[in-house]
Every structure is written in structure tokens, then in C-alpha cells.
Amino acid sequence: MSAAVAAPGEAPAVEESLKVIQDATCTFCGCVCDDIDLTVKNNHIVEAKRACVLGKAWFLNHKTEDRPSCLIDGQPASLDAGYDRAADILVTGKYPIIYGLSDSPCEAQRVAVSIADWINGTIDTTTSVCHGPSGMAFQGVGEVTCSLGEVMNRGDMIMFWGSNPAESHPRHFTKYSLMPKGMFVPNGRKDRTCVIVDVRKTKSAKAADIFIQIKPRADFEGLWTLRALAKGVDLDPVQVQHDTGVELTVWQDLMQRMKAAKFGVIFFGMGLTMTRGKHANSEALLALTRDMNAYTRFVAKPNRGHGNVTGADNVVAWRTGYPFGVNHSRGYPRFNPGEYTTSDTLANGEADSGMTIACDPMANFSEPARRHLATIPFIALDTKETPTTRAAAVAFTVATYGIHTGGTVYRMDDVPIPLRPSCESPNPSDFEVLSQIERRVKALVGVTG
Amino acid sequence: MRETFILIPGRTADQGCGISEGKFLEKYQREINSLQVAPGDMTRLGLTKGDRVRLTSEHGQVEVCVVPSKGDELPVGLLFIAYGDVSSKLMGGDTHGSGMPTSKGIDVELDVLARPAST
Amino acid sequence: MLTEYTKISGGTLYDPANGIDGLVRDLWIADGKIVDPPTDPSVAPTKTIDAAGLVVMPGGIDMHCHIAGPKVNVARKMRPEEKRKGEQMHRTNITHSGTLGSVPSTFATGYKYIGLGYTTAFDAAIPPLGARHAHEEFEDTPCIDKGFYVLMGNNHYVMQSLQRNEPERLKAFVGWLLASTKGFAAKLVNPGGVEVWKSHQAGNVSGLHQKVDHFEVTPLQIIQGVARAVDELHLPHSVHIHCNNLGMPGNWTTTLETMQALEGFRGHITHAQFHSYGGGDADENTFNSKVAPLAEYVNSHPNLTIDVGQVLFGETTSMTGDGPLGYYLSKVYGGKWFSGDTEMESGCGITPIKYKNKSLVHALQWAIGLEWYLLVEDPWRVVMSTDHPNGGSFLAYPQIIRLLMDRTYRQDILKTCHPLVRERSQLFDLTREYTLNEIAIITRAGPARILGLKHKGHLGPGADADITIYTPHENKETMFELPRLVIKSGRLLVDQGDIREVLTGKTLHVTPDYDQEMEQGIQDWFEKYYSIRWRNYPVDLSYLHESESVPMTN
Fold this sequence. Notes:
The structure holds 3 protein chains of 3 kinds. By secondary structure, chain A is an alpha/beta fold. Chain A has 19 helices and 20 strands. In chain A, helix 4 crosses helix 14, helix 9 crosses helix 11 and helix 9 runs parallel beside helix 13. The N terminus of chain A is likely disordered. Chain B has a 6-stranded mixed beta barrel with strand order 1-5-2-4-3-6. The model of chain B has no long low-confidence stretch (mean pLDDT 93). In chain C, strands 1, 2, 3, 4, 5, 21, 22, 23 and 24 form a 9-stranded mixed beta sheet that branches. Helices cover 32% and strands 22% of the residues of chain C. By secondary structure, chain C is an alpha/beta fold. The chains are: A alpha/beta, B alpha/beta, C alpha/beta. Chains A and C meet through helix 4, helix 5, strand 8, helix 6 and helix 14 of A and helix 1, helix 2, strand 7, strand 8 and helix 3 of C.
């Protein structure tokens, strides 16, 4: 709606109705592009300059839904009643879980971790069903990595493995990895070789100089083939072709190029972490990257999905010492993926109450996990209605981070970036909701600090 | 007719946009309910766009419409579907000690169902 | 309105900054500060703490540790294995839970420091791009005041300014960078070497005179250029230097040259222990101590200060902004390895390590650290540090105090070490024992002075009421590991190891006056090469919460 056709009763505030927010941060995906210029008319974003297709959908569709800020058992309720009920659910449970957080700013994530601490609860983030296995792999072999600006300025061999940024991170190529003219790659794309390894010839494959189509579920074998070739181990061509679906000569050519690169980068996606092998796949890739540093400089980086999933890893880690899947039932943090991770606490029928924040397990989890979640009382915070908010005992409609509220998010390379809110929301922020719940939880369990 | 395939659920641009536009809106629902099938498999199975098939994994069963995958995006024997409620019904609850259910590379049986009456 | 006073009565004060060495004096506190006793004798304190028979010192100051920010948090994520089996930190009705191991979680870090009687700590290596992260962690690191040093020894703008011989531009940049990050001091880590690492397999510089390619500047130029900028900006702390060639046999000559390069400037050489090795060509068989000639140089050059970076035996995590060093250590130890290069600015290396007393190299490192404490004559210019967690945990400070105050204990430990240590270092012959007053200098008064913190490290009127009270004990480790009381900003936080109250603590930073005309040039450079926007780079005041801008020196 433009100011010229202001509704009856509204002041025709021509001057104040239009504003431009420069360098706003898009939090849809892990690229966290912070160069978006937003045009806002009457509290509605009408233009998102430089945003990609996902970013435009993110900014332009975020009209505030005509929904109550709080629903208890599906019925509109006051926020205070919702906070009270939420706190009651969390302190009554014997095995309460808190899950989600990858689309919340760090400020809200910190409060969520506090609540988990006060209720001796379990806290987990969507990392556990994203790059959690890569986090486990990192704990096994480490990681050689860099910030995205290093890729931009130095990367001359850019590989993507099990990742399809053309659809999941649309500005990845143009902003960070392929197209930019960097300090040591002044001709941009011409100075870089792009290799894509995938089981599908994805939309990203068009960007590749070399596309290698491996057999489904053969990532581990492909990566170990390269590790062997890096070390000069003789391999049986028949076996390699059989195990990976790719001829040995193709792998040999790739290894030659990798060794000849000055600064190689492997971006990897959930093609590795969600496929059989999971952390073993990621570990093979991280180990290969490490191996390559005996010959040249090589780095690896998971292409993280949600806007602040990297922040969630960081916040949970600095407060508990562990990145995700943290259980406080003994009064101190313990970590065990496969036990304290949410897919497991639900599918195993262990959690008896919970809170989901900016996530949709009722749509994305396995059937046994969903079935169990539907039977326990839980609180859901989301900006929109989802299958999860529909099943929640208490559902809060919250303001959208980066659009309605400020705060901090961490880009996929751990670079913290501030948010520049552009619109106002009638709904509370997740920080506000969590803080109110925390206040009540503390009173109920007798925390005074 | 029943055939074995490997199913890859993954992100697509329409699915990503649909999250922002609304999960109960048609665009998102259409995207997560559309199974991409390699043209070679479409022909062999006598499928045309919009036909319904049933996918059965060790853990669940769903019915979806098929669309041919573009060009050579998919090799024969591989199916693709946008992540979401439908693909997740085919996952098992076991995470093999990782926290992550096997969500890609799922073995599925495909049954061709009757064509929609309108086509 | 009446002022509320707290009186600490009858304690034995060790306040070297005010020349008080073991005198019984009362201390008066009001509004978080130490104050003169009220002139009106009828004024009674609201609260009196009886410290008769107890030792009273200013709160400890750790001037070089790694407790927050990107690298520390990566190390937390990387090392779950050492937490599950270690000491657990339960939540209480006033404190959060946490984990320990070599890299404690944020809350655990704050509680452990205050429990040890340390009231201020500085993280020594924050990449500017990660400054916001460090500030976020600081807010979750309770009970202590804290600040950080900003990595700039491999910053492209620094090197470019030197290459173009533009010292004024460099000076403005150092000021801008500290103001933008809300940092406290300028830190150099392997100046030039990390940049070479980024562009070459196993790359590094070999010494002060090797040119960094592309920029065509030497480590020597970087050291002198930044030292000059820091002094001309009148920053409270000098340039803080992690020298080139850390850990390499024979590196003492590089360290000596670095000290010589600082002639005419203030300079602080950090974790000197790691930089005082004799021996040739990376040959471990010839590895030996070269503290004596370096300490002699420090003794005769009052412009220099050092902290030690003491090694303790046991398992820990090495973390450094020195990327090539991380690679070297990962090859030595063969464990998991993290390396993270930050665009335009810095690098990072992390790997688990274990120091063993039966290893000649490790035992020598232990002895070399102790030699530094014992051979620097002026305790005001040597500071206790373990470079936490690199040499060991800050929780080892009480043990180091005992090693310094009790030569019998020192020699007993030495006897458990590799036998060749006695030939390759002179530790066995050093009979010096520290006094309590000297301990108070190297753990609080000295670092406060070196950092330019006029309101810390002493107990005179105007000082922050950060006070640690100890129960005297013959075993100094026992005495220092469990303070009787710890007071922070005038509030009693710890009573015999129990946390009674929690506060957030302040962030200490600087606001240098620099030539703002130069900002446009910095912006032009920034926008060409960084992956984030210029306007999203500076850390604004909302990240500081409780904070204090420490004034420049005059």
C-alpha cells in the first residue's frame, strides 16, 4: 500500500512512509549477505536490491500475519498467560528438550541456552540435522579453513562436493567463490577452476569447468580415492570405477589439478552429511583437505544452510563447551550426538516436554520423532504458522529477525554480522519471549543469580 | 509395476522461496509433493508429467506426482524430491549415533498408480 | 545521601605500587572504589570484613591469555574428549553450569578466574573481523573485567602503508582499527609470517629481514612501524609482540633482534619462554636455554617488558594466531589440527598437545620459563603468564608461585625431569626465591602498570576495589589456589571458594584520537577486498554493555 492511497483514518504521512535501509543483512541462508538495500513503504518492504531469489522471497513476503501473538492449545491467549504456561511446561518435564535456534539472533540463542541450564534440559540446534556430522568429523580430524573473503581473494580452484549452491545459496558464486575479482585472482572467474562433484547434475553443475558424477552413496570412496592418489598410492582402475562410478583417470586428473592449484577450496554440503556414512564422509573430506596442505594450500568449508545456524553452534559452544546435542540432566553439560540430539530424544520417546524455536520438526523429522512430539506438551516460537506451531501447546508468533528485530548472526564462516531491522512488528521478538519465559522459569526453580 | 530407486531429497529454489511465502501455500506444497524422475525412467515406466506414484521405503510410504527432471540432471535409477514433510516420511528414526537420520540416498520402491482422471 | 562504606580491617597489605610491603592497614571501599577513610571519625562502615591475620592484595591481572573469541570457541568445539572425564561445573542457584578441560566455557572461565582471585584478564589475539564475537563472549564471561588485543601484524593495510612509506596512514589505521573493534592494544603475531603462510605451502618468514612477498616489507619494518604508531597514539599499553619463529631451536637470535628493533620504543615481548631457545637448524638434539643473554638485554633496556608463557606438564590445547606454527605443531604431535585464515587480517592454528616431564624439549621449556622469572632483575618488567591454555591453564598460577617462592620444591620437580635439562639450562643453579611482595608485582601491580591501568593493580584511593584476601600458608600453592575472599568492584563475590554473588564485569577498551581524514582511504581499500560491508564492520557500543574506555598516556 502506498502513502497516496492511505486508508481512511491514517495520516497521509508521505514523507515518513518511504525509507531506504542500506547494507541490510539477509538471514535466509548461510551466505548472510550484508549488502542488501531495502526500500520500505508503510512498514512493508517493496524492494530488496541485490537480494537473490531466496532473499527476495524472504524480504518481500514478510508481511506480518494476521495471527495472535500467542495461542494456547490453539486458542488465542494473552502473552502473559503463554509465558506462564510455557514456563510451567518446561519445569514440569523430567526430560525437557529445547531445539531449533538457527533462525534466531545470538542474543535470543543465549537466553535459550540459559533456560536449558536452569531446567536441567537438553539443548540442540538444527545443526544436528544439517552439518552436525561435519561437527563430529571436525572433532575427529580438525579442519583447515578460512573466511569467505580469503576464497574471494585467493581461491584459484573451487570445488563443491554434495552441495548445490545455485539453488541453496544463490549468491555464493557471484559474491564469494567464483566470479569476484580478488587480490590474487584479478581476473575473477577466468583465474579459477571450478569442479563440482555430485550424484546429480544439479543446476550448479552449469557453473563447473569439470563436473564429476559419482555413484550415489559413494562419497566416502571417492574422497578416499583422492586421499590415496594424493599420497601416490597405486589403485586398481576396475575397483575405483566400481566403487565410485568414476574412472580412475578422472580422479587422477583431478588430483593433478588440486596439487597444481595455489589455493584450493572445497565447499561441501549435506550430500555428505545426510547420506549413509555421514560424519565419516565429512571426515574423509576434512582429512583430504588437510593432506593437500602437504603440497599446496587447501581449505574446506561446509556450506551452512540457515541464516544463523553458525551462530547457534558458537553460542551453544561458548556457553556449554559443546556445539550441539547438549544435555544438562546432571546439572552440567554433557554431549553425545545420537543420544542428546533431537531426532533421537524424540524418536526414542525420551523427551517428555519441549520448546522449538524457529524450526519445523513436525514437517522435517522422521515419522517416529513426529509421532512422539505430537504426544508431548511443547512450546513453539515461529514467525509463521507451520505444522509444528499447529501441534504446539503454546505457540508464539514472533517478529522476524533481520526484518523486524536486530541482533547478531554468524555467517557460515563464523564471521559475526549485525542486523539492520527495517520494519516494525506487532509481535514480540524471540528474545523477548524467551527472556520472559526465562524470568518465570528462574522463579519456579529458585534461581536468583 | 514396482521398481527400486535411490531417492535424493534436497533443497530447491522454489522450496526455499516457499518457506518464506508460506508452507501451507500452493507453491510450496506443489514443490515438496513433486517427484523428479529421469526422462529415461519416465519413458521406460510409461509415465507422463502429473502421474501419481507411490514411494515405499523401509520406514514409510508416500504418494506424489511425477515430473520429468530437466535435461540430464538425474541419471536413471535416481529420484529427486524437494525436502519437506513428504520426503521426511520416508526417513527412519535411527541416526546411527550421529544425530542425523539418513535423509539422502534412501532406498525406495516405486509403484505407478492410476493417472489422475483429468489427464 | 550517605555514602555506604565497606571496611577491610586489620589485614596485612601487599600493595607494591604504593610501596606497602606487608603492613597492617585498614582499607575503605565506597562505590566500587578504594577510598580514603572518612574524615569524620563518627562515620561507621556499613560492612566490616575482618582480615586480621590475612594477606590482602589487589586482584590479580592476567595480561595474556586466550579466553574468548573465534579461536577459543573453535577449540571448545574441537575438544569434547577432555571435558567429559574432567572436573564438572554444576549449575547453582546463582551460577551457570559449564565445562572445563583446557578451554573452559565462558561462564566457567569467569568463575574460575574470580575463584583464583584474578579480577581482570586480557585475551591476547582477536582478529578484527571476529571482534564482535569476542565481545559477545565477554558478556557471558562473568565476574571479571576483560579486554582484548587486536591482531595486526599481518594486516594488509599495515603492510601496504609500510610498503608505501606512509607512517601517518599507518598510525591512523591502528587508531581506527582499535576504535572500530573496541580493542585494548595492538598485537603482532609472527609479523609477516602468517601472510606468507596464506599463500605458500608451509609458508613462513625465517627471520626479521625476509621480505613478505606481494607487500615487499619485512617483519622488522612491521615491528618498528606499529611500535611507533602505538607510541605516537599514546596507547596505554605498548605494542604486544609474539615474535617470529616461535618454538624453533635457535630462535633466540630472532627474539634478540626483535628487542633491538624496539630501541626507542616501548615494547612487550609475550610468552618469552617460547622464544628463548638455542640450538641449530630445527635440531632438537642441540636444543638449549638462551634466557641468560635475552634477560641480560631486558635488564639493561627499561623500554622492554615481558610475560613468560610458562609451560606446565600435562595435556592442553595449543591455540595461536600464528597459522604456520599451528601447522608445525600439528605435524610434531600428529593430532587433529585446525587452521583458519581470516581475510586481510590474520590466521589461526589449534592442536592438542601434551607436555611431558620426561621429554627433554618439554622439560627444557618448563625450565626456560622459570629461568625468565628468576633472571629478570626488575619484577616490574616480568609478568606471570602461561599463555593460557598454550603453556598450561591459568589455574596453574598458584603452582608457579610455589615454584618461584620455594627453591627446594623447584629443584624437587627438576629432579623428575629429563636429566639433560640440568646441562642445557641453568635453572638448578638459580637460588633466587620470590617474596610475597614480588609475587604481588608480577601478578597484579606489574601488569597493571605495563597495561597503563592506573586504577588497577593497587590499593590506593581511586583504585577499583578489586581485592583478593588470602589465608597465609607455608605452602604457597595452597595459599594462592583458594583465596579466603575475593572482592570485585567493592562487592564480595567469593568466600572460600564459594561464589556468593555474580556480576558481569567491564570491558576495557581504548578510544584513540586518530586522523579521521584518513578514513576514506581505509574505506576504499576495505570495500575492494573484504567480504562484508564497511558499515557492518565496526563494533558499536551496544556490544560493550558495562565498559570503560581507558585513557591514553601523556
